[in-house]
Amino acid sequence: MKPAPFAYLRPSILEEALAALAGTQGAKVLAGGQSLVPLLSMRLAAPSMLVDINALPDLDHVTSDDDGVRVGALARHADVLASSGAAAAQPLLAMALSHVAHPTIRNRGTTVGSVVHADAAAEMPMVLRLLEGSVDVASVRGRRTVPAAELFAGPLETTLAHDEIAVEAFFPALGPGAGVAFQEIARRHGDYALVGAAAHVETDGDAVTRARVGYVSASDVPVVVDVTDAVTDPAGDPAAAALAELEPAGDIHASAAYRAHLVTVLTPRVLADATDHARRRAGERSSA
Amino acid sequence: MTTKLFGSRVPRVEDQRFLRGQGRYVDDLLHDDPRLLHAAVLRSPHAHARVVDIDVADVLDVEGVVAVWTWDDLTGPMAEPLPLLIPHPTLTHGRTQYALAKDEVNYVGEAIAFVVATDRYVAEDAVSRIRVDYEQLPPVVGIAAAREAARAVHDDVPDNVGARMVQETGDARAAIAAAPHTLTLDLDVERSACTPMEGRGTVARWDPDTSRLTVWSSTQTSTGVRGCVAAKLGLDLAKVDVVTPDVGGGFGVKINHPWPEELLVPLAAMTLGRPVKFTEDRREHFISSAHERAQQHHVEVGFDDDGRLLGLSVEFWHDHGAYTPYGLIVPIITSTQLLGPYKPQNYRVAFESLYTNTVIVTPYRGAGRPQGCFVMERTMDAIAAYLGTDRTEVRSANFIQPDEFPYEHGLVFQDGRELTYDSGDYPASLAKLKELVGWDEFEDFRAEMAAEGRRVGIGLACYVEGTGVGPYEGAHVHIETSGRVKVATGLTTQGQGHQTAFAQIVADTLGVRFEDVEITTGDTRKMPYAVGTFASRAAVMSGSAIHLAALRAKEKALRIAAEALEADESDLEIADGVVSVRGTDASIDLGTVAVLSNPLRYAFDEASKAATQFSVGDPGKPPVAEDDEPGLEGKDFYSPARSTFANGMHAVIVETDPDTAEISILKYAVVHDCGHLINPMIVEGQIHGGVAQGVGGALYERMAYDESGQLLNASFMDFLMPYVTEVPTSIDIDHLETPSPLNPLGIKGAGEAGVIPSAAVFAAAIEDAERPHHPDLAITAMPISPSELFELRLAHAAEPAAEPAAEHAAQKETR
C-alpha cells in the first residue's frame, strides 16, 4: 500500500498551481487527501503529479452573509462545522457535516474537495445540489461559476475540466419560511450512509409551497427530487414520487430493496422535520 | 499457596509502555539500519489459475531492486510445499501451498514472486512490473460450490473433500427415530477473520561472523517459527534464534506458520548478506493471511417432553479454503465443543472439510466454538419454542450436574485426548446470569417497550471451552545477586498482560516484590522449549510452569539460607525478598542467598567478594555439591494429561427498529468461570475485548467474496469492524470460580471466552424481538445485518394479532 511514483508540487500562488495542472497530463489536485490518498496507496489511482494546494493563500475561509455561506477550497469540514455564522445562515450544513465520517477525517478533509469528488455516497455533494448552490472554479482560462445542477456528470465525475481547481463553494442561505432536515442510516457511526436524505421545505403560513428531498447513496449520482406535488396532494406519496426518480442499488452492505425501503422510511421523516423547522423559524420570526 | 497478589486487580505493567507509544513491534526494528532491505510480494489477482509464464525482465531495470525471486529460484526444502503442521488420520487429502506458487494459484492473494529492494516503495513498484501469463481456471467459491464439486480446487481432489470425520457416542440416529419429539435445523455461519491491529511481519539478520541467523517475527509461536526456518533453510537449530517482540494482536492468525514471508525473509537475509524486513499491509492481510468461521450445519435432534436431549446428530461442512496447513483443528473443535454444558444421551457428529479457492482457514479466537455454540444454542431455543417452555428450563434439563465431574463425553478432543470436563457448576452459573440480566423481569420490560412501539428481545447462550491444551510449557526462574528475579517462558505475548499476571504468580510463590520480577516471553535464546500462545493456554500452561519453577528456586533458596542462618528450613519464611527465621531477627536477603549459591574464584565487586571460595562453604567439601548446580535458579515444565474446561454464559437484550431494522444493544451480561482468577481486571479485559469482537462477528464483519473469488471488502472501509460506538457501553460481568483440579493454581483459560457465544446470543435475542411480529421468523444464519433482517421480515410477513407461536414452525428455513 505505497503509491506509485508521482511528481509533487506545492505551489504558493494559485497561478502556479493552475499552470501546473494545465501543463501536466494526469495531474491531480491534493487538498485534504481523505479520498485521494487511500486511492493512491492502494494504487487505484496513479496520477503523474500531485498539485498540493495546501500552501495557497486565502482559500481557507468560511464566510457567511445574508446570501449564504462561502467555503474556500482549503476550509476543512471541521471549520465549516464550527462556524456559527454558517450554522445560522444555512443550518443544513452542520446537520449534514456531523454525519461526515469522524473528527479526524473532518479535521483534514475539505468540504469543497468532497463536493468535487462527487461521491453519491457523500453528504456534501447532495447538500450543494439540494440548496441549489454553486462552485467557483479557476483555470488558466479564467474563473467561472458552475451551478450545482450542472456540476455532477456521473459517478465520481464532475463537469470540471482536468485543469480546473474548485476554489470556493457557495451554499445559499436558508430563506424565510424555509426549513431543512437531514437523516441518514449507516452501518457504523460515521460510515458512508446506506441511505441518507435531506429535505428543503418552503412554507407560506401553514401551506407548503415547495418541497424537495436530496438523497445520498440512493443512485449513482447525488439526486434531488421535487416532491412538492406529492406533499401538497393529500393523497400524495412523496417517497413513491422520490423512488420513481431514484435507482437504489444493492451491494455487500444493503440490498436494493432495503435501500428503497429506507427511502420510504426517511423521506416522510425529513419532510416532517423540515416542515416543522420551517414553521418553527416562521414562529420565531413573527414573535421576534 | 499464600495468596497476596494472586487474585487481585494489579494494574498491567505493560500499559505505560503501550499507551505512551513505547511498544516495539517488528516494523520498529532495525528501522534506522541503512543496510536494511524491504520486501514486497506479487500476489495472485485470480482465485484459480495456472501460472503459464512469469517475466521479471522489467523489474531488473528498477533502481533499488536487489532481488526478485519466483518458485524457479528456490531450491531444496524451500522448493517443497510448506509443512502441514497438524496432520490427522482423517485428513486424507491435505494440501499446502508453496512459499512461492508453483504452476498454479488457488486464491486471490497467493504469493507468486518476492521482491527485495532498498525500500518498500521501490519493492512495490517492482512488483507492479512483473508480468505473469495466467490461464484462468474456474474457481470454487463458497461451501455450496465446494459440495456440488462441479469443479475442483485441486485436480487430484475431485470432490473437494480434504477430510471426512465422524465421532459418535451411543446411537444418535436410532435415539432420534425413537424420540417423542424431533426437530431439524439448518444453520450457517459466514467467513470472518481475526484482523489484529498489527498484521504479519518478519525481520531477519544473518551474522556472517558467527554464522547465526536472528529472526524477529510477529508470531504466536517463536519456537515453531524457529523449527520451520531451520528445517527449510537447512540450518542447525542451534544457529537460529527467533525473537518475538511486542505483537499488536494475534487472535489466532499468527499461530499458523511458517508464512511464506517468514521463510523468504530469512533466506533473503542470508543470501543477500543484509537484513531484510517484510511488513504486511492491510490489504495483504485481508487476502493472504488466514480467515475462519465459514460452516454450514444440518441438525437433527430428538427430545422428551422436558426438552431433554435423547439424540443429537449434527452434520456440517467446513470451508478450509485453498490449503490445510493447520489441519482439522477448527472442525474438530466444533464437533466436540458444540456440546457445551449439556449431555445429550446419544450424539453423532460428522463433518467434511472442503477446499475452496479462497484464503486459507486457521483458528480465529474461539476456533470453531462460536459455530458450535451457535448450533447447540439455536437447537436449545428451537426446542424451547417447540415445547412452549422457558429457554432457561430446557437448558437446565440438559446440564451436566456439579456432582458429575469429571464428566467423560466419550469423544476425542482437538489435542487427541479424551474429552473430559474437569469442573464447573452450570446451574449456579445460570442462576447468576438470570439475576444479572433480569431474565425473569424481561416480559414486563417487553410489554413496557411495546407500549411505546418499541421491539426488544432477550437471548442467552452457554458454552464450555477447552483451554490450556498441551503438550507443555516451561519456565526458568533466576534470582540474581541483586535480588531481582528474571523469569523466562517460551510462549509469546500479544498484549494479554502476561508480564503482569506471571509476575503476580512469581511474587506470591517466591515471596518477592512484584516490581522485582521481570518476565521474558517468546525468545528462543532464553527458553528454547515452548509451544505457543493459542487456545487460551498461556496462563494455564506457562502460569503453572512458572509457579513450579519458582517453587524449585524457592526450595534451593531455603536450603542455602537455612545453612547460612543455621536454622531449620521449616522455620524459614520469605517475604519481600528477605528470608527470615520465624520469630527471630535473623534474616538474609535473597540476593545474598544468590551470591552464596555461586562460589566464585574471582571477586569483581563487593557482592562477589563475599562469594569467593575462601568465604563460603565447607573447605572439606566440593564447592558445588555433587547433586547441585551453581546459581539460584529453578526450571520446570508443566504438562497436563488433558485440557481444562472453562465455561460461561452470556445474555443480551437487543432492540430492533420496526422501520429500519437496525439492531441496537441495550444490555449485555456475562457470567464467566475460569477457575481461580489470577487478575480479575485482566480477565474482565479479555471478556470486554471478546464481546466487542463477538459483536463484530455477529452484526458487522464478514468476508464478502464474489463468485469469481475476489474479496470485495478487503479494507476497513468495507470490512465493518465495529467502532467503540457499536459495542455495548457497559458489560455486566459476574464470575464463578470452580477451580481446575488439573493444575497447581486451579486456573483455566480466559482468552477466547468473550467471543464464543456472540452469534448464538444475538441470533436468539433478535429472533425473540421479532417473534411477536413475525412468528415464523427464525435466525438461522449469522452474521446478520439490518438489510438481512429487513429481507427476513419481508419473507415472514406479519400475521394479524401476532402472538409468540408455541409451535416453532420455521426450523427448515434457510436464507
What's the gyration radius of chain A in Å? 19 Å
How would you describe the shape of chain B? globular
> How much strand of chain B?
15-25%
Q: Strand order of the main beta sheet of chain A, please? A: 4-5-10-6-7
Structural class of chain A: alpha+beta
Main sheet specs of chain A: 5 strands, antiparallel
- Largest sheet geometry of chain B: 7 strands, mixed
Mean pLDDT of chain A: 96
Helix content of chain B: 25-40%
Q: What's the quaternary structure here?
A: heterodimer
Give the C-level CATH assignment of the largest domain in chain A: Alpha Beta
* Low-pLDDT residue intervals, each spanning 5 or more residues of chain A: none
Number of self-contained structural domains of chain B: 3
> Considering the protein shown, what is the CATH homologous superfamily of the largest domain in chain B?
Aldehyde oxidase/xanthine dehydrogenase, molybdopterin binding domain
How many strand segments of chain B?
29
CATH topology-level name of the largest domain in chain B: Aldehyde Oxidoreductase, domain 4
**CA-based gyration radius of chain B:** 29 Å
Named at the architecture level, the CATH assignment of the largest domain in chain B is 2-Layer Sandwich
Which pair of chains forms the biggest interface, and how many residues does each contribute?
Answer: A-B, 24 and 30 residues
